């Protein structure tokens, strides 16, 4: 069995645990409930560990960076929209400044940051009301 | 006030003078050219010389990187520095700055304007043919084991020549790195492999942007709040004071002092950048200041900066560390506050149930669908993102007491189950379909670098199921891909065979491979030994059994001019099993022979004679090698019993260099059929050499090797001529 198949099966089990009324089933069989809240996170941890074993130390670093990236994205998403756009303007001015100074690599980096701020601002404008319950 | 201003001005002026008079400033043309070649990414050493009464210069100050002689460092010499014989360095860039053609130290006829019979003062620098001629400069001259790059000074003082020559030397620096990358992922340590993967990952790139945004927010967070508010009264000078007024208690008491020091230290950058800018202008390099700062602060250059004995560079590095510490002190309170703020925000906000339920379903569906098509190894970052999102969703639902299954109605539930059944079908059927269809290869250029000039040896990194577009070669060199000979001018057929299948007939070449398999084959097939033996000393040698003679000793003569470090030196002895049971096994014995205490250049050559606790040999001849330190520090190794020296047969030292492929032996002349043997070749691989008007398509045999899966990643394309232009 390939590693892909193993991961897929574990995801499938996770789906069954999460989407099917398994507490009813476990109450009948084992006489206990709460499996629906404990088993899915455990299963996710098992999948995570398997992926870590497969990828090595790089997986741990990816995980840390992913959490940091998600945190930065959500923090930006929940902050005031005006702040995001002002940040874009400040970065835009800095970008021009670095370009004039001839440090084009840093200017390009700042230009990308401007783009990210604008994209985040637009994403927030379009989706905030649909995602967040005020 | 005026006094303070005067003191401040005086301070900056002194700093500028100190910089201009420091070792980094070109005090003479050697220093000037040293910095120029360094700006072309080459590791350059210089020596200080003094002229004696006979008009011959002798070395006063040894090279800075004397410990790295033999690596990818270059010694820069002027032809006017008529060096006394006996001084050697592996790679020398010789700038001809005189018109004296009679200088015996010159490895090729060269003057200020000419190299061999080319007079550069008569050429037009902007013509394309000139660029080709400049390529000749990069072709080294090897004299007595020393590789010379001979450069008439006119090429360095004429702007157009210098620009073009710079591209060649930059390519040379790239090619130097290639030899160190040989062996691909297998030869790298896991740490470097990890760093490589991380450096090339999009997730790191994304994270850098995230951290950069965060840093800007940290520095200007308060400013954002103030600018975002509607009150105009905030636009006062107090704004700049309150920007940093949120430190931790620990820093709060001294915060004003910290920020003042930080500001003062930061302003020092102005004279530094000014001085670097002046220097860049003198050198005609507008980007010098930026490249100097980046090179000095690059963590990978740290050992070089520390070893450079350059006071300004060391001072600049130390200054930046201090600045960094103050930057951390200044930003830390804001950082902690922003973390607390974000945690509060995350706790307070509430997602719409519609979003959370469909987001979880979508992430699960996409992940499980992708698992059908993409190998886990290629979607690690995506999988981790998916798992992180699902875990955070579970935590969120648990805190809000949301039971996911209750959010869906029956119709939605049916759709979700149907979609998961679809992914199940995909995961079962697609791998079966894939097994029955031929591999679809994508095509990319063999030389994918967008650089003006690319040289052999070239390191090619490749992705999965990739083949290369035709790349025609018109040169006269033998061209190899890793241990495989792919082109030989004049040959109609090339056969690559494992070294274990060696036959001493016809026209053939023996290529270096991994050390231990090579030694094993040499033991099993001693007929190869005479072909790869060397007349000069090397640290790998064979000798016959001397059992029964007096207690043996080993003599090691070590060259101290390179200041070798202390080390434990071992003798590794390889032999074939003698008795029936061990007949097919290779016996490896490692004997600790010397605890070398190190020595300094003033010691000259030191000889260590130590008893050798020789184990009983398993065969009447063995192969041994001295390990534990750089082979280049040994001048001689002798085995002695009583007063008798045991004859050693030295083997080609290139066998020991796993970082670089080389030809250990080749039959003279050319032939229509040529066989190439290497321990790295596992299966016979024949090539029909068909050349067209455009040349020989190097990609054709390389693509076959790719399909066989025998090339390393990256693999090395190299030639028997060493440096050669592959793309211009």
Q: What is the helix tally of chain A?
A: 6
The chain-level mean pLDDT of chain A equals 86
Query: Which sequence of strands runs across the widest sheet of chain B?
Result: 1-4-5-9-8
Tally of distinct domains of chain B? 5
Q: What is the total number of structural domains of chain A?
A: 2
- Cα-atom Rg of chain B, whole angstroms? 33 Å
Strand content of chain A: under 5%
- Measured between the Cα atoms of the first and last residue of chain B, the distance is 61 Å
Q: If you compute it from the alpha carbons, what radius of gyration of chain A comes out, rounded to the nearest whole angstrom? A: 22 Å
Helix content range of the residues of chain A, please?
over 70%
Strand content of chain B: 15-25%
Q: How many β-strand stretches of chain B?
A: 34
Inertia-based shape of chain B? globular
Largest sheet of chain A: none
Low confidence ranges of chain B: 1-27, 64-70, 183-188
Low-confidence stretches of chain A: none
The chain pair forming the largest interface, with residue counts per chain, is:
A-B, 64 and 69 residues
Structural class of chain B: alpha+beta
Report on this model:
- Chain A: Keywords: Membrane, Transmembrane, Transmembrane helix.
- Chain A: The chain crosses the membrane at residues 6-26, 35-53, 84-103, 109-128.
- Chain B: The chain crosses the membrane at residues 208-227, 255-276, 321-343, 355-374, 380-397, 413-433.
- The complex is a heterodimer of chains A (134) and B (728).
- Chain A has 134 residues and is mostly helical.
- Chain A has two domains: 1-55; 75-134.
- Chain A is built from six helices and no strands.
- Chain A has helices at 3-19, 22-29, 35-55, 57-78, 81-101, 104-131.
- Chain A is elongated and about 70 Å long.
- Chain A starts with a helix and ends with a helix.
- Chain B is α+β, with helices and mostly antiparallel strands.
- Chain B is built from 21 helices and 34 strands.
- In chain B, helix 11 packs across helix 15 and helix 16 (353-373) packs parallel to helix 18 (410-436).
- Mean pLDDT of chain B is 78; it is low at 1-27, 64-70 and 183-188.
- Chains A and B meet through helix 1, helix 3, helix 4, helix 5 and helix 6 of A and helix 7, helix 8, helix 15, helix 16 and helix 17 of B.
């Amino acid at each position: 069995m390939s590693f892909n198949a193993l991961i897929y099966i574990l995801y499938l089990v996770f789906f069954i645990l999460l989407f099917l009324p398994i507490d009813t089933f476990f109450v009948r069989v084992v006489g206990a409930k709460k499996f629906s809240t404990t088993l899915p996170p455990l299963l996710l941890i098992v999948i995570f560990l398997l992926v870590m074993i497969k990828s090595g130390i790089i997986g741990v670093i990816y995980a840390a960076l992913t959490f940091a990236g998600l945190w930065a994205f959500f923090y930006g998403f929940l902050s005031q929209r005006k702040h995001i756009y002002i940040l874009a303007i400040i970065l835009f001015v800095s970008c021009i400044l670095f370009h004039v100074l001839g440090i084009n690599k840093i200017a390009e980096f700042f230009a990308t940051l401007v783009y990210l701020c604008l994209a985040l601002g637009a994403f927030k404008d379009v989706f905030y009301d649909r995602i967040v319950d005020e | 006030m005026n006094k303070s201003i005067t003191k401040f001005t005086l301070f900056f002026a002194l700093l500028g003078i100190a910089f201009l008079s420091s070792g980094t400033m070109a005090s003479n043309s050697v220093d000037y050219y040293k910095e120029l070649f360094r700006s072309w990414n080459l590791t350059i050493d210089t020596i200080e010389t003094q002229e004696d009464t006979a008009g011959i210069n002798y070395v006063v100050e040894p090279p800075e990187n004397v410990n790295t002689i033999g690596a990818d460092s270059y010694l820069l010499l002027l032809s006017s520095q008529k060096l006394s014989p006996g001084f050697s360095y592996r790679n020398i860039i010789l700038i001809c700055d005189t018109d004296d053609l009679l200088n015996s130290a010159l490895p090729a006829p060269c003057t200020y304007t000419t190299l061999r019979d080319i007079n550069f003062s008569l050429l037009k620098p902007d013509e394309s043919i000139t660029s080709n001629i400049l390529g000749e400069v990069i072709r080294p001259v090897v004299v007595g084991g020393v590789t010379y790059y001979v450069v008439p000074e006119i090429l360095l003082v004429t702007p157009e020549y210098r620009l073009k020559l710079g591209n060649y030397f930059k390519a040379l620096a790239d090619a130097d790195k290639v030899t160190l990358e040989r062996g691909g992922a297998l030869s790298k340590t896991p740490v470097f492999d990890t760093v490589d993967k991380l450096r090339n990952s999009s997730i790191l790139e994304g994270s850098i942007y995230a951290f950069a945004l965060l840093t800007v927010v940290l520095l200007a967070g308060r400013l954002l709040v103030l600018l975002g508010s509607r009150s105009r009264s905030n636009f006062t000078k107090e704004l700049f004071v309150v920007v940093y007024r949120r430190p931790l208690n620990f820093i709060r008491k001294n915060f004003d002092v910290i920020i003042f020091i930080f500001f003062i230290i930061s302003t020092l950058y102005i004279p530094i950048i000014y001085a670097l800018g002046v220097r860049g202008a003198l050198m005609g390099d507008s980007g010098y200041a930026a490249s100097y700062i980046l090179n000095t602060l690059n963590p990978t250059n740290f050992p070089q900066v520390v070893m450079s004995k350059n006071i300004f560079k060391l001072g600049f590095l130390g200054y930046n560390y201090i600045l960094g510490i103050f930057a951390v002190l200044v930003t830390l309170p804001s950082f902690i506050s922003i973390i607390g703020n974000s945690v509060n925000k995350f706790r307070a906000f509430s997602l719409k149930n519609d979003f959370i339920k469909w987001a979880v379903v979508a992430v699960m569906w996409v992940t499980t669908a992708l698992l059908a098509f993409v190998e886990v190894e290629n979607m690690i970052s995506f999988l981790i993102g998916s798992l992180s999102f699902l875990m955070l969703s579970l935590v969120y639902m648990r805190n809000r007491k949301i039971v996911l299954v209750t959010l869906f109605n029956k119709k939605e539930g049916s759709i979700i189950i149907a979609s998961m059944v679809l992914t199940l079908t995909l995961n079962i059927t697609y791998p079966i379909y894939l097994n029955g269809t031929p591999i679809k290869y994508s095509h990319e250029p063999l030389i994918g670098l967008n650089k003006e000039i690319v040289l052999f040896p070239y390191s090619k990194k490749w992705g999965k199921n990739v083949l290369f577009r035709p790349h025609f070669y018109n040169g006269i060199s033998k061209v190899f891909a890793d241990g495989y000979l792919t082109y030989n001018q004049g040959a109609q057929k090339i056969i690559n065979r494992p070294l274990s299948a060696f036959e001493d007939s016809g026209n053939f070449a023996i290529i270096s491979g991994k050390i231990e398999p090579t030694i094993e084959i040499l033991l099993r097939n001693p007929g190869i030994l005479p072909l790869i033996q060397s007349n000069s000393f090397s640290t790998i040698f064979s000798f016959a059994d001397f059992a029964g003679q007096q207690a043996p000793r080993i003599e090691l003569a070590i060259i101290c001019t390179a200041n070798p470090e202390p080390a434990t030196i071992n003798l590794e002895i390889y032999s074939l099993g003698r008795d029936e049971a061990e007949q097919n096994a290779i016996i490896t014995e490692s004997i600790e022979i010397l605890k070398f205490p190190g020595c300094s250049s003033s010691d000259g050559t030191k000889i260590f004679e130590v008893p050798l606790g020789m184990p009983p040999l398993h065969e009447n001849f063995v192969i041994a090698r001295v390990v534990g330190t750089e082979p280049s520090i040994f001048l001689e190794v002798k085995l002695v019993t009583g007063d008798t020296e045991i004859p050693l047969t030295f083997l080609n030292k290139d066998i020991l260099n796993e970082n670089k492929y080389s030809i250990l032996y080749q039959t003279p002349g050319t032939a229509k059929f040529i066989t190439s043997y290497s321990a790295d070749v596992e299966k016979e691989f024949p090539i029909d050499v068909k050349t067209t008007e455009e040349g020989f398509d190097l990609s054709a045999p390389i693509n076959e090797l790719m399909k066989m899966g025998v090339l390393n990643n990256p693999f090395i394309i190299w030639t028997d001529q060493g440096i050669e232009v592959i793309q211009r």
